[in-house]
Amino acid sequence: MIRLRTLIPMVALLFAACSLVPAELQRELLPSNSPYKTAEAAYQVLIERHVDKPTSQLLLGGALVSVQTEVQKEAPDATFPSGSVDFTGSTWSDFAKFSDRVTAVLTAVPKADKTLVERAAVDGMAKAMNECHTYYLDPNRAKGFNQPQPPVSGIGVTINKPSTTDPIEVVGIIPGTPAEKAGIKVGDKIVTVDGTDVTNLQTDEVANRVRGQEGTQVMIGVLRGSTSLTFTLSRARFAVPLERDTMLDGNIGRIEVPQLVGPVADEVSNAVKRLDAAGANALILDLRGDPGGDLSAAVDIASIFVRQGTLVYQTGRDGNRTPLDVNRRFYINSPKPLVVLVNKNSASGAEIIAAGIRANDVGVVIGSQTAGCVGTGQPRDLPDGGLLLVTITKIQDAKTGADLNGPGRGIVPDQVVDQPTGAPTDAQLNAAVAYLKAKIARSSATDALPLAA
What we know:
This protein starts with a helix and ends in a 6-residue tail after the last helix. It is globular, with a radius of gyration of 27 Å. By secondary structure, the protein is an alpha+beta fold. Helix content is 36%, strand content 20%. The strands form 3 sheets. Strands 2, 3, 4, 5, 6 and 7 form a 6-stranded antiparallel β-sheet that branches. It has a 6-stranded mixed β-sheet with strand order 8-9-10-13-14-17, with helices on both faces.
């Protein structure tokens, strides 16, 4: 009896002490009981895995903006809870505040769809990172992620998404295809496919909607400047060249690489040998509009021109840098002046090639600043059946150490040359040719100097 009487006051004291713990600390220490498990899972992945170590204020602020936008679709005149949410940087107490605000919004607007609102919150978190390798796919869109596509027909365009907020842009037209015959142009922005808005979709999602059975029709809505145009095209089969090589005036070889897929590195290697045998005095590696693709293809193509060395660095969340070195098997020992042509749609592996060639002093970069879309993304399953792609490593320039991924980053060319949409001449290609002709002339003059004996 004595022991029991002693124990009861002690237990009462423990419960009393727990009640004295501040609410903020309780929320940080206790397991979450949020009704928004998909948003919670996405938030945790971004907080714990994203290479840029985002703050709770950034992620949850973006989530709430997206929530409000989604709710306003159903109730444009809805009155939302007033006052801002005081996010302090405390991971889970901030998420609890976010949950409370979303619940208040749903209470204020009962006809809002809780599932769609929560998915909008996840999308808002991903977009708050403001870089191309972090994004959310809802369950329907996630089904097609990274799935091999059966052979299909299309219209003959190469497309890319310039940024997380811009629509898909046409960056290349394959000769002889329905797109060329219909008059679709490089720079056109695809906003609808068969009447459905596609401005918020990813590049591969739009491509999958455009493709289809040979002979069937597809209606493409584009924005050309401020003019809206609609094209109805019949899908056709066509071969997508891995590379195109030509000899320009002055014995300057040009190699165009539309995308880094399949055995493209072998094709570029053969093109270099072919142009060398034809007497090329210099080379242009044209990566304009190349959205990237296989990392190994990027490394192998850069290695054709770089004998040894580091192309770029991969840097993880912990700050540790891993060098991405050349593949010596691909090097061709035939040094000559080299220009890499790039533009705003040169992305990912194309940026690695340009950065690596410049960092190792084997060529110069001409054109306009690249996309700044280069990193390593990792898919993570979410409770709703969707996928969150999260960037886990970033790429840094091997010479300067500068980050290449993100808005305003990428490769700034050694010689910046703009190429206005619809311009009658190719100013960037002309600048590359002029640079190489001058380089060849200087080299010839040096070779002709008399030697002392």
